[in-house]
Amino acid sequence: MATPILFESEEQPPLNLQLRSGHRRNQAHHLNTQPQFNNVEEIAPPSQNPQNYVPFPTFARGSTYSFTEGNSYYHSLQATFDRRFSGGLTVLVDYTYSKCRQDARTLLTGDIGGYRAPGIPGFGIKGDYALCDWEVPQIFHASGGYELPIGRGHSLLGNVQGVANQIVSGWQTYWILTLQDGQPFTVGCPNATAAGLGCNALLVPGQNVYGGLHNVNSGSIRRPFPSRPPRPRCPSATSPCSAERPPRP
After folding, report:
1. Contact, 176 vs 143, CB < 8 A?
2. Is 103 helix (H, G, I), strand (E, B) or coil?
3. Stretch 217-231: mean pLDDT, rounded?
4. Tens digits of residue pLDDT in 105-146
5. Torsion angles phi and psi, residue 50, rounded to 5
6. Max Cα–Cα distance, the chain, nearest Å
7. How many Å apart are CA 103 and CA 89, to the nearest integer?
């Protein structure tokens, strides 16, 4: 079920100029989605067998199953500038700023990842209410055309006639420019955090998502210190024990 709403205004001042702006909104409910079937319903350590935490342990987990439980919304602000200049020049510019979020997933799109815990009570598919796969926040288009002033009645070769005029006149050139943001994607966790459940990396405020100390060979984060634990040493029975890291071999 979809509920589209459109507010739009248009103005045509003189000089062959057209201005148009509007707000588009669309809400959809009961969208078809595939959260799968026989999912894990309890949170357990990743070392546990997830098959022990599904409703039907004798059946396979994650079987394809469709539900009409998805929801989404789309909002956008749009502006258009259209001008026809003298001399055969036309310019069309439009800009769109939008936001789209949903919790529906399909088999054809999966850039934002699947459901992490669709069977966990209180989380479900609504816990993955996120940006749409096709979300493009900003789009800018600029296009135009120009009729070349060549041929009879124009500034160039204006006196040409007959077949020659048919050949050199009527030529036009067009151009178009498109600038837009990229679509979203999800970074998953390198290691499992719960048995049979998914995990997404968290975006920490104030941290550079492209920075940090990383091992480019294995993809793991470098340890600032050696991984060997400190070895306790007791100089005597009366003095307290102190922890000292053993020397490197």
Report:
1. yes
2. coil
3. 45
4. 866 666 788 899 999 999 999 999 999 988 899 999 999 999
5. -65, -20
6. 117
7. 46
Q: Residue 50 and residue 53: Cα distance in Å, rounded?
A: 5
The b-or-e profile of 53-62 (16+ CB within 10 A means b, else e) is bbeeeeeebb
- C-alpha span between 186 and 201 (Å, rounded): 8
> What is the DSSP annotation of 21-53?
EEEEEEEEEEEEE---BS---S---TTS-GGGG
In DSSP terms, 18 is beta-bridged to 82
Whose tokens are 């078809």? That residue is 32
* Whole-number Å distance between alpha carbons of 42 and 243: 41
Asked if residues 53 and 196 have their Cβ atoms less than 8 Å apart, the reply is yes
Dist. CA 200–CA 187, nearest whole Å: 6
pTM: 0.68
Dihedral sign for Cα atoms in the order 215, 221, 225, 229: negative
Would you mind telling me the total number of residues written for the chain in this entry?
249
Contact yes or no for 159/117 (Cβ under 8 A): no
Domain boundaries, the chain: 2-137+181-198
Tokens of 33: 């989605």
Q: Which residue has the tokens 């920075």?
A: 211
Token digits for 230? 């400190």
Which tokens go with 82? 């259209």
Question: In the Cβ-directed half-sphere of 196, how many Cα atoms lie within 13 Å?
Answer: 23
**Strand locations in the chain (E):** 2-11, 17-33, 67-84, 89-102, 130-131, 138-147, 172-180, 231-233, 242-244
- Name the token pair of 164: 């020659």
